[in-house]
């Protein structure tokens, strides 16, 4: 009896397609559904690839290598300010554009300059190192003559434009400090009132 139940359940299973039987033609509705699914899959794939650019050459689809495209797509970085920055992988490194300024050591005996106010030789001075003003730290007057002003104050006080700070000869020297009002805001450029 067990053999008859097994044979009965086997009747419900469809036989495997044999090479002799031709496949049934698809209806127009089935073809339209297949095409819609294919288009949706292509859009999803494209969105996934555009949100995650290629970082490894093995991740790249065939035909998009260096020889066929010429330039590799860059890496996208979220700036946190509401926009994305595209970084070139082949091109220049963004850190290569930044000039690193090292503080000079103290001035040796034969090269020392004299202070404008007290005529003493200067070995190390904040104003001389930052702004090339030969005034020693003891003589500097940070309240009046040698006070530091922000770029905005310098623009308002002396009616300057941005090009006056960057492009005129000689360019105005400044020091860059973190904004004391909010650390996440941009850095402040402080200019010497005396040089403006």
From TrEMBL:
Highest rank taxon of the organism: Eukaryota
Residue ranges, compositional bias (Low complexity): 40-52
Domain XPA C-terminal: 145-195
The keyword Phosphoprotein is annotated on this UniProt entry: no
GO CC, any one term: nucleotide-excision repair factor 1 complex
Keyword Hydrolase on entry: no
GO molecular function: damaged DNA binding; zinc ion binding
Region annotation Disordered: where it falls in the sequence: 1-76
Keywords, in A-Z order: DNA damage, DNA repair, DNA-binding, Metal-binding, Nucleus, Zinc, Zinc-finger
Pfam families linked to this entry: XPA_C, XPA_N
Record family assignment: Belongs to the XPA family.
Protein name (Swiss-Prot/TrEMBL): XPA protein
Gene: XPA
């Amino acid at each position: 009896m067990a053999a008859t139940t097994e044979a009965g359940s086997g009747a419900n299973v469809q036989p495997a397609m044999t090479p002799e039987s031709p496949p049934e033609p698809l209806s127009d509705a089935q073809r339209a559904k297949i095409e819609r699914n294919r288009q949706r899959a292509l859009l999803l794939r494209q969105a996934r690839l555009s949100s995650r650019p290629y970082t490894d050459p093995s991740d790249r689809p065939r035909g998009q290598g260096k020889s066929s495209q010429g330039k590799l797509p860059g890496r996208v970085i979220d700036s946190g300010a509401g926009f994305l920055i595209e970084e070139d992988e082949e091109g220049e490194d963004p850190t290569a554009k930044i000039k690193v300024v090292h503080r000079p050591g103290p001035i040796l005996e034969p090269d020392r300059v004299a202070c404008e106010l007290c005529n003493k030789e200067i070995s190390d001075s904040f104003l001389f190192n930052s702004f090339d003003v030969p005034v020693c730290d003891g003589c500097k007057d940070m309240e009046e003559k040698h006070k530091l002003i922000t770029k905005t104050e310098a623009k308002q006080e002396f009616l300057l434009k941005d090009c006056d700070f960057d492009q005129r000869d000689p360019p105005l020297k400044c020091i860059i400090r973190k904004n004391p009002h909010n650390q996440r805001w941009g850095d402040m450029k402080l200019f010497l009132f005396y040089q403006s």
